Amino acid sequence: MIVFFSGSSRNLKEDLSTYRRITNAIRLDGHALHNDWVETQWLRDSTPVENGGGRPWDIESIVREVELSIQNADVLIAETSDGSAFGVGYEVALGLQQKKPVLALNKKGTSPMSYSSGLRHALLTVKEYEDNNLEKLVHDFLAENEISTKDLRFNFVIDRRLYHYLRWKSYKTRKTKAEVVRDLLDKDMKDKD
Predict the structure, then answer these.
(1) What does pTM read for this prediction?
(2) Strand 2-6 with 102-107, pairing
């Protein structure tokens, strides 16, 4: 699966170890990060200004990259302990709007009053973590949302003529339109073998 990871970059030096544990857990489970911004940001922050570090980022480019990353991801994982990180809450909300399963991880002992803490959604899983269970929470979420165990949805645009035929076929076979299309695809795949 492709995973988008979100977290606040405000205190990256303090959060780097946790962020790396999360991103490493994603990779160790055989998944890919769409955008490994953590290491890019860390390199930028740790590079002296005279060598090109510390320069402000183009916020429009960042927003476009984040939106593209979320759109192309299968799931999102967000570290939400920094209650003042509105951007993380926005990214969580954007993922939910696009019907992506989201894991919001909050460090035990923190009680963020952030945008994401006010969200309620069937695809949102909120977990409190400690040092000894962080990787397990990531692993369990990824296993639960493995694409191979889920039916996938997509939009299907057809013209009026095909729609009327599909509706008629659905009525005649007493199957849903989705079942009719699945049966046709299954038959076509079997014919190819």
Answers:
(1) 0.72
(2) unpaired
